[in-house]
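## retry 2 of 3
previous attempt timed out at serialization; input unchanged, resubmitting
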Amino acid sequence: MLTFLLQSLDGPLNVFRYVTFRSASAFVTALVVCYFTYPAFIGWLRNKRMEQIIRTDGPQAHIENKVGTPTMGGVVMLAGITIAALLWGRLDEPRLWMVLAVTLGYGAIGLYDDWKKVMERSTDGLAGRWKLFWQTTIGFAVFAGAYLTGVMDARLHLPFFKHAIIDFSELWVGAPDILGWAYVLIGVFVLVGASNAVNLTDGLDGLAIGSTITSAGTFAVLAYVAGHAEFSAYLGIPQIPGAGELSVVSLAIVGAGLGFLWYNCYPAQIFMGDVGSLALGGGLGALAVITKHEMLLALVGGIFVMETLSVIAQVFWFKRTGKRLLKMAPIHHHFEKEGWSEPKIIVRFWIISVLLAVVALSTLKLR
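## retry succeeded, writing output
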């Protein structure tokens, strides 16, 4: 918004035109909003008894230490991200609105789920099939609109190789639109998968948000490079006009995440809830699809992939053998059962997340 107001000014205020400055400003704005809002919000949640409902079959330490901790902390994060993105982003860039639409839409699903759990004093919440239905519906609506208006094409870019592209619109010359829509469905799959993967990871204080911060920071770099004609050409990655604005949203997520982590680090004063985890996962998925790094998301968000695969493997193995592959899934609970302290698990997973982010960025030079 400030870009519109100040775009005609010269001199020192010309700095507002640069996406790097506006991205840094979005980071600071989201951080400040969250840091100063959470104390009052936590107090309000405590007064209203908006507490996290803890699984009775989980680790004993969770039952003893986490009962009574407020949830729905993602609400403030989403407010900080939205304010920062609208304040410092270009409002005429549809890709910015796409990421916000997915993030806030998935946040609404999570908010209803959290509210249902709190009101019913149950861990059930919104049925899984309805979560998937609304996640799919929102994702399809956003990507279908982008595809129909030409904002998003049907090209899938493969990582590690220059000019390795699968153009779905040209695979079937006789009916290009059919396979073009197949790419839209792939994008929706990425959204839903990323959203639920972050949700599964959100089980220890600071674990999910720490990994989200490194992932969002990585996509801030990828978005900036994808929106820069010279950098994208040099590195051999797809050049996406306007993608640089997504670095504003990405760093807004990083800033809001740090503001939340101040209160969510062990021992947590507040949990993000599904309103936070579903929204942040959806936002990361949207950033990956729009910047044409869908497949690289599996590496950037390797922690989320590992958590998801641990659940899938646990269920599969139990159905096949009647025995548990892990002591408990997701895998961070397995390490708790092994006797690792919660802070040790969290920090070690953070370290892995940072290493994966560095490896993902290094692959740009391998193309």
